[in-house]
Design goal:
By secondary structure, the chain is mostly helical. It is 41% helix and 0% strand.
């Protein structure tokens, strides 16, 4: 549940009159900032810790496949744009796959495995 700081239509402050209320007739609590120490951008769900039941496992899977993709790409000496061009994706999209920000679809993973001359199951090694 996400808290919203919007006034209710019948907002009346303590004291019984709107004159004693802050501007606009509601008290707006200051939201607490989320501190991230590793310098990455944080999604709202991650900041609040409100993931759906299987979403956390999905995030771990995406990050694992992305780490393996980056490892193999660097091993082959390819840049992000070079690999992206070989699988008809942009370098930026490959970067999103590598960071786990975007999930790699099965067809794209097959193309990547073929391009990197790697067995498809190699990307899943070390998950368990």
């Amino acid at each position: 549940m996400v808290l919203h700081y919007a006034p209710t239509p019948n907002a009346v402050c303590a004291g019984g009159s709107l004159r004693s209320c802050p501007p606009f007739g509601f008290a707006n609590p200051t939201p607490k900032p989320t501190v991230v120490t590793d310098g990455r951008q944080v999604d709202l769900e991650e900041a609040l810790g409100t993931y759906k039941r299987n979403q956390l496992n999905e995030i771990k899977l995406n990050r694992h496949i992305g780490q393996r993709l980056r490892l193999k790409r660097q091993e082959r000496g390819l840049t992000l744009p070079q690999l992206g061009k070989r699988v008809a994706r942009s370098g930026q999209q490959i970067q999103k796959y590598e960071t786990g920000h975007d999930a790699v679809k099965a067809a794209v993973l097959f193309q990547l495995a073929d391009t990197l001359n790697t067995p498809l199951l190699w990307f899943y090694e070390g998950l368990v």
